[in-house]
Amino acid sequence: MLRMGIVTDVTVALVVMLAAIGMPGTAWTQTPVTSFDQLGTKLKVGQTVSVTDTAGAEQKGKILDLSPTALTLAVDDARREYPAARVSSIKKHQRTSLGTGALIGLGVGAVVGAALGIAAASTCSDSPEAVCFMIPTLFCAGIGTGAGLGIAALMPGKLQTIYQAASASGGLRVTVAPFVVPQRQGIAVRVSF
Hints:
By secondary structure, the protein is of the alpha+beta class. It is built from three helices and eight strands; from the N terminus they run αβββββααβββ. The chain folds into two domains: 4-26 and 96-154, no CATH class; 36-95 and 157-175, SH3 type barrels (Roll). It is 37% helix and 31% strand.
């Protein structure tokens, strides 16, 4: 019979690993900058970005030049310059991490393999119980890693906001409006950030 110590240790390790993968860490999240002076820390020449101007028009292009006062893009073989005052937001395409996909696949495969390993170890009579447990666990972990890589490679990713103009990011807004209903009159005040 397989000792419960091995099963418990493997189960605890897998649960901790899956919890760590599922938690968004501060290193994984990025907050957008609010000043063109800071764009150099997030973007570089040659990257493809989507720029939304203050009128709401969005344009996708490759960065040709980046300065504290303006951004120049190559759009359909033409140069378009965006002064900082005209830019509402800048987003870049963030691909899904292959490493994260592999880790999630590894974790899921290892959990499935551990469950199969426990079942195999209880019926295994020719080999040591630890070997009967580890073979399905390692096999399924490998299959899961490959599947996680494949799924991550096929996912389109998402647009990540790199720059958000201070005025476009909200700020304090106060809205005052009168209201009249039967038997009541008043003023509604709404504060939003």
